# Entry
Amino acid sequence: MKNYKSGNYQNQGFYKSFQPTLINKQWFLDDMEIQQLLSKADRQLGRLDMYSGYIPNIDLFISMHVLKEATQSSKIEGTQTNIEEALLDKEDIVLDKRDDWEEVQNYIEAMKTAIKQLETLPFSTRLIKETHKILLQGVRGQNKQPGDFRTSQNWIGGASISDATFIPPGHNSLAGLMGDLEKFAHNEEFYFPDLLKIALIHYQFETIHPFLDGNGRVGRLLITLYLVDKTILKKPILYLSDFFERNRQLYYDNLMNVRSKNDLKQWFKFFLVGIIETAKNGIETFDAVLKLKKEVEEKIQKTNNRSHHLLNIMEFLYQKPIVNAVKIVEITNVSQATAYKILEELVNLEVLKEITGGKRGKVYVFDYYIKLFN
# Structure
């Protein structure tokens, strides 16, 4: 790490692009501060992974983790959709916010599909491209080669390439750079701790910037995919975008300082602190979810003979904490009149909260649950 050189600038005529150093090589870790943080991060991740194994129906709660990740990762890129809005159907979103809403929905779909593909497809360039294709489908950026590496120069910051903050490598070197990144991800000949590996992969991917659009979102998505692919996590329950969003300037500065100052140590420290904080927060969230679940079930058990319907509805709400009468009918097969009585009952139990204020087309949210993820 002491002798690390991040790359060099190459003259491209009227601008210079940054050519990063290849990363598939032997790395030596000789920094005690990094080793100490790495040990803490490993412990917290281990706790989170073990904790998730004790939670019944863990998949019910993963949907909200993915939703939070989607809104926070997209927020870094400038979208303004929050969790509550992301839960709504498209027709319930005001027209000027639908583009943002669709980008968040694409992120959710991209994550779910990629996690499923990991069962048969390794962490690879192919997986990255297929994930990117879903991410940009039908939204802003859909005309910027979804699913394919760029064939032209891009840049970060600035109104034009002339005043850009950073200019990634030329497109002719993308195949070699991404091939090197993929080999590094699977290199078992030279040992390097997995958390530092994915920290370096994320930095390298953002520096290569292989797509014309969506690089930031894909790069953050790769962190979770790597942790699941390497079985560090059994389930996709850790997402760093919230940490990156809350420390957005530090996130950008630390990435840039690797390129400009070869300061890989500070990037590793920032990344590991993110892992530690996020894993701790994840455990606290699961604790709060289990406590809430127990309280709600105790309330429901004290109700009349409709308790089995209410418990079925709760199973749905843990995945998508927003509901209306039509959905109640779909879940329980009761009449619409009974559905409204059930909704009224859940409001009286302080489980649901009506958010439209209208007499028709009422929408209800599991407000306490949503707040655990905000």
